Amino acid sequence: MTDSQRAAPGQLQADLAALAGAIERMGGELALGEEPSNFVAALDAGAPRD
Fold first, then answer.
1. How high is the pLDDT of residue 15?
2. Chain mean position to CA 39
3. Terminal alpha carbon distance of the chain
4. Per-residue model confidence (pLDDT) at position 34
5. What digits encode the pLDDT tens for the residues 4-42?
6. What's the distance, CA 37 to chain centroid?
7. Which residues are CB-contacts of 20 (< 8 A; sequence separation ≥ 6)?
């Protein structure tokens, strides 16, 4: 690796933090995407009767 290819000090940490943030956001989006199907399944199962 040449000097021109090396990241500036702190750049790697910033890049990793950005990647971790993107992964966290994607995880949240997946969870939100799954919720409607779980909601429909709960409606199909019906609420407990009193």
1. 93
2. 20
3. 70
4. 62
5. 567 787 899 999 999 999 988 887 766 655 666 677 777
6. 18
7. none
Q: Can you give the length of the chain in residues?
A: 50
Dist. CA 37–CA 44, nearest whole Å: 10
C-alpha–C-alpha distance, residues 48 and 6, integer Å: 61
Q: CA 35, CA 18: separation in Å to the nearest integer?
A: 26
Q: Determine the pLDDT at residue 25.
A: 83
Q: How far apart are CA 10 and CA 31, in angstroms?
A: 32
- The DSSP annotation for 1-35 comes to --GGGSPPTTHHHHHHHHHHHHHHHHHHHHHHHHH
